[in-house]
Fold each of these.
Amino acid sequence: MNEYHKLCGSDEWRAVVRDSILPWALGDMDLGDDVLEVGPGYGATTDVLGKLVPKLTAVEIDPDLAAMLMDRFAGNGSVSIVRGDATALAFPDERFSGAASFTMLHHVPTAALQDRLFAEIGRVLRSGGVFVVGDSLASSELEAHHESDTYNPIDPETLVVRLEASGLAEVEVKTNPFGWTARAKKR
């Protein structure tokens, strides 16, 4: 584990997620009562979302991270951790009231797989359900932290078209010097 990945699991990062990233991304948006989180990684957003919504299901593809999260949230009846692939979700159509994904899409190796993930989110969201997603802007510094890992950042200027192709509408994209966030609704 490199220093970057240690930071992702730290209390310091949880505070950044709680105090800066999620408030900026969510604004006044209500994710509803049954929320899907895609790619929780070390669980910083899971910690925060698990306190904001009545029911949270987090899907993590990495077996070690999924096992760690299962142990950590074992006593929390409102948070479920599922080991799975977000490009082929094992949930029925229109299951969730909302979905969220933060700082993980750059780990998805191809644009086609990122689009498949977006399509799966569109499939499992209820009509009118919201999807909030965010990630870092491409940078050589962030790329250096992913030397032995997948690094495929998304250009935020492509998000409106890509999310609309996934059955989502009312797409809003915001950027700051470090990252981007997008909000959309299921048609």
Note: The chain has a mean pLDDT of 90.
Amino acid sequence: MEPVRPTGVDVPAEGGARSGAPDLVELLKACGRGDQTAFARLYDATSSRVFGMAVRVVRDPAQAEEVAQEAFLEIWRTSGRFDPAKGSPLGWLLTIVHRKAVDRVRSAEASTRRDATYHQQNQAVEHDSTAEAAAASLEARRVRGALASLTPVQREALELAYFGGYTHTEVATMLDLPVGTAKTRIRDGLIRLRDTMGVGA
């Protein structure tokens, strides 16, 4: 299917036929019978409305063209199901377009969330060299026991960095501190832990 480009031929807002305008109900019935000429006329009569709806939802003209093409494909496949007793033809068309556009937005948002989650799960965690030495030589239970010797602010920062696995920058953000202050608290806490537990530098 060619990219959707508004043709300038359109139907009234209420979807009714005006003088010289195509009867959308009849065109949909003909499409349901596989009439490609009727589908081309339907496309010409409604493409600007379809594209307009798509671009209002997805806010990107290129993606709106893809959404409109997907919508017209579904309209062609399901035109035989249209029931004029349940609503106007234009309303039926735009409902399909709106659903396709919302699906596209949700899919993009889900993809963004997946990318962000992957990045967070695979992001290398910065480790202070003292933290690496402590992690390599001390059991977690001993470290937790020694935490009681720390000041509350040191313990809070160290628990986030050591047990939570957060970077210095993330700890600073979570505690609303400058990064330098967070690093100092973590480093001082680790040194105090090392001294308390009798671990060599």
Note: The longest helix spans residues 89-122.
Amino acid sequence: MSGGRSADRRSGAARIFALLEVFEADPGPLSLSELGRRAGLPVSTTYRLVGELHGWGALERADDGRYRLGQRVWRLGAATSWERRLRRTCAGFTHRLAAEVGHAVAVSMLDGDRLICLDTVAGRHRSIRLARAGDEIPLFATSAGKLLLSATPRRRVAGLLAGGIPRLTERSMTSASVFAGQLEFARRNGYAVAFGESAAGQSSVSVSIGHLDVGPMALTILTPISHPDLTPLVQPLRRAALTIRGALAGPAFH
């Protein structure tokens, strides 16, 4: 009982942050009862605050009624000094790579079961659709998602696949067995590809930057789907990923 009274004495802002900080340990999605228990809040308070956070866009409600962090929180995160330093550190290398290959380049990071865009650089093909910093990217339909999931424990991947693979385009792979084969290809070869699976008319190839302090990251080149062969882009990607990894692991970034 004393824990409940102590929780009730917290300010409104403290209660909101207590709810949001629950996702730091578990990205969710989480039910109302799980959120309230972990934040140390009464059910009625949890219900009210979650409703407000959902209306503001800080939380998203899944089809099963559970909640996870919303796009608005990611966008605020993209404005932090840490995020700006991360993008600034990568920018020189990604712009150089885009100029070298003539195609769009993207950096992304796996955070729990979400693939988040950290930065993009446009190439010569203006038809390529690029995510913005802080956007969530399709996990199963992108080369970056496949590449990073290929290094994720198989039991974790199986849990993610249990919810099914959404069809985003007519080329989206919705078969779990086909997807498993794509992950095995990425494990063997050190890169992953996607052909019009997340956005019609464009393909991508990704390699790993590494599992650094910031999390597992991928470097991607995006091309029109008419591009004849993505394989020659793998070596430039690997060279750039190696330099980015060195810069992010060095003292200048920390």
Note: The radius of gyration is 20 Å.
Amino acid sequence: MNQEEIKSILESYRTVAVVGLSRDPDKASYRVAQYLQSMGYRIIPVNPFVDQVLGEKSYKSIRDVPETIEVVDIFRPAESVPPIVEEAIQLKNRVGSPKVIWMQLGIVNEEAARRAKEAGFKVVMDRCMMMEHKRLRQGKPSS
């Protein structure tokens, strides 16, 4: 995915389900979600082990989220990505279904990415949504 496509995603989609969002402020998922929330994004925590994060109700899975999800931002190990992508695919016919699968920095699952693309999702892999947003704001190209 090139920088223009990432820019388009960050500017077009404002509702982000963060799968694996920790309530621990020292974890990357928390810091990234907190930053995105401070930049005006609607953050929806998805973590079956917490009730609330960043002042938002947490859901057990993206299937349980009763509102529009535009980006599924994944903070789970690469081997945990395929079932999350399958859930997103199951939501494709629902109003307000996700448009983007975003695997955070260090997360690469080519098979899940292929399945998501075949189902019509935009896919970002091995990139940090916060870092990309900061680059966009500063006008710097991605490395």
Note: Helices lie at 3-12, 28-38, 81-90, 110-118, 129-138.
